[in-house]
Structure of L-ribulose-5-phosphate 4-epimerase:
Amino acid sequence: MMLKELREKVYEANMDLPKHGLVVFTWGNASEIDREKGLFVIKPSGVDYDELTPESMVVCDMDGNVVEGDLNPSSDTATHACLYRAWENVGGIVHTHSTVATAWAQAGRSIPCYGTTQADYFYGEVPCMRGLTKEEIEEAYELNTGNVIVEGFEGKDPMAQPGCLVRNHGPFTWGKDAAAAVYHAVVVEEVAKMSRDAELLCVAAGRAIDDAKAPQYLLDKHYMRKHGPNAYYGQK
Amino acid sequence: MMLKELREKVYEANMDLPKHGLVVFTWGNASEIDREKGLFVIKPSGVDYDELTPESMVVCDMDGNVVEGDLNPSSDTATHACLYRAWENVGGIVHTHSTVATAWAQAGRSIPCYGTTQADYFYGEVPCMRGLTKEEIEEAYELNTGNVIVEGFEGKDPMAQPGCLVRNHGPFTWGKDAAAAVYHAVVVEEVAKMSRDAELLCVAAGRAIDDAKAPQYLLDKHYMRKHGPNAYYGQK
Amino acid sequence: MMLKELREKVYEANMDLPKHGLVVFTWGNASEIDREKGLFVIKPSGVDYDELTPESMVVCDMDGNVVEGDLNPSSDTATHACLYRAWENVGGIVHTHSTVATAWAQAGRSIPCYGTTQADYFYGEVPCMRGLTKEEIEEAYELNTGNVIVEGFEGKDPMAQPGCLVRNHGPFTWGKDAAAAVYHAVVVEEVAKMSRDAELLCVAAGRAIDDAKAPQYLLDKHYMRKHGPNAYYGQK
Amino acid sequence: MMLKELREKVYEANMDLPKHGLVVFTWGNASEIDREKGLFVIKPSGVDYDELTPESMVVCDMDGNVVEGDLNPSSDTATHACLYRAWENVGGIVHTHSTVATAWAQAGRSIPCYGTTQADYFYGEVPCMRGLTKEEIEEAYELNTGNVIVEGFEGKDPMAQPGCLVRNHGPFTWGKDAAAAVYHAVVVEEVAKMSRDAELLCVAAGRAIDDAKAPQYLLDKHYMRKHGPNAYYGQK
């Protein structure tokens, strides 16, 4: 069996999704890529989390074709493949329907950066992508979901905003590996809750929600504290 | 004892309701029908979930009369029987007072389809039924609850919208068997949360909630991806 | 040691409060009365739930004086005693600061009856009491909390509305025994959530919250289904 | 190894943060000071909670310099040190990004005192500090976070309002030791939820949120019941 270690990592990343309360039933998937081999491992489609094993993971090439595995890969495989092709620094991808992030996606709204919780991982907002057109959906839905995300990040660094909301759908997040993508999925759900409540508290007090936005110099500081060349958070 | 296997399935479905956080105390019930025998199995009324056993389930005929069982069947038995009589494809039914779905029912509002989480299982909204009249309530409350649901689905396919909200009361869901009805009860509670939050986020940003509605072609795509003759989600 | 069985029941009722998520730290208390002996048993004040035992419960007379027990009784003892003196059908009392019921109390609002979940246990609203005056607070705060509740129920049957909200404070509930009072505390928190969300959904759709009120004949039906002489819910 | 007992206490306080649902991943820290030695013990930076041990805690002097420990101390160490220097009664400090308290901080709003849950621990509001200036952030971010808190409490008793919100960031709480600071962190998150909901219920009913404020004499009574010389809550 190919890519034993990677299967194990992707299996663990998938199992972490329900543990963090991000996934009900089978509504999520995680993948990670082996850049040298040009192959990625992804969850099979519609299989219960307690029936998953490292062996049941599916190996795909960069066009999303199955290379090894008895089961169908996640129905979102073409989206994962598209992002791996477009962004060479991305090593892992996660998709969920986590409750509050999905609510933002349904409202068609980017999550503004109201504070340091978000600024520690996102250099700015969690952007909401434009909706797919009728043609894009009918022609190649999952591939075009990926294309719309890539389009939405033109001129942006996907590693500095490691996630987005697909309109009327839900969040996709990514990172250097599958575990990092899971981490960012947790961040997105958490800031989705905080920012919803921050806005409601502005409304209740008759204030403009825009006044809640964190100033740029605070975002700069927090992001750089963790990610810049002079990062000093954690154990380096 | 009759219908041993069916009793087991209905028992499991009922036990899944508190596991999914849909039921407090005894506020829910699940049933499943054996179409050949014209009998359905349902939870007894007002019995604690940790005292339930497959043997304590009650067997009823299609008029809701007890055929086997020492305990009274759920007080909602006449509603279940009514739906089984009206809809021959329905194999299982669930009723809960799950918190947020019940809030929509209390507000007297259908849950609009704002995204793919709902579109994967509901071809459109989760409809809220009209309130029962004074006469309907006094005459035959539980039976007329069923009648009002059947009336609300005239011209609709109950398998394409496998659930509804009974006004000022709470959700009823159904499916090919009791397990599917439980699944749809989870979906309804989950989309109830997402859609509440999506609307609040529209309000906070000064946008119309109607703008959040998913376009019809997205609903078509998602529903057909799972349910049409060309379905490609999961392992077929 | 006196009232061994009652101590056990009150202990269990107290332990059920954190299990149902109604109490953080020591922010709640339950009591039950032995009407023949004119004594009630109540939780000691400010003791951690995991240090409670049936033996640490405190026995009080109907003026709230300690009859047996090494520890101080709950600081709300005078409120419990006051309600026991005023209402002879009440056998158990619970006070919590459960999150959403407390929010209604802080808003100074009664919980309107928007649906059958509430109507099954409350014949109408969960009423919010008037605030205590400066004099009432300074003179005898806990006793006057009881007096204000009794005043608020003048002309009402406390067994048909087994709970209330004390303004800027939180819910008190009661019933035939401590277990019933706990049950009603759960009901109040649950309907507090449902009704908050029902109102927000009315606001989001531009509807009047009053339109969400359940019609009187539905309330009559549900309450009588469980409580009237012709009750048919559960196993009788 | 120095300060063995204190390391144990700080370790326990840190472990209590995720247990109370206040912390995701590594987003929180607790410390406690030994006033005689002029040293405090704090969590290491960015280490997973399940890898923490009493031995991995870091000992710092009152300028925040590491005195003993192989790991970097929390990135918020300079804030803790600043508060210990300014306030000699404070024995323990906690910082979290707990969801709803952080939402208030993001909205830039103090939590008004709407009820007794807050009044039992805070003599008035949970104040939100002014935002840091660009210069303060760039020059010495964590130290100036402490300075802004100290400035915000000028003329106030930090032991009577044992916590605050740092704008666009999150809550800091304190107390006589680390355990008390954890306790107050729970209180702040709990009243953040209650007060958010109380305000939404005022808005839904068309009332002014200011009307929900608890009267001063109620605040006096509750705070003094637990903290004044005539306190009578708990076992003294």
Notes: Chain C touches chain B at residues 114-117, 183, 186, 190, 193-205, 207, 211-212, 214-215, 217-218, 221, 225, 232-236 (CB under 8 Å).
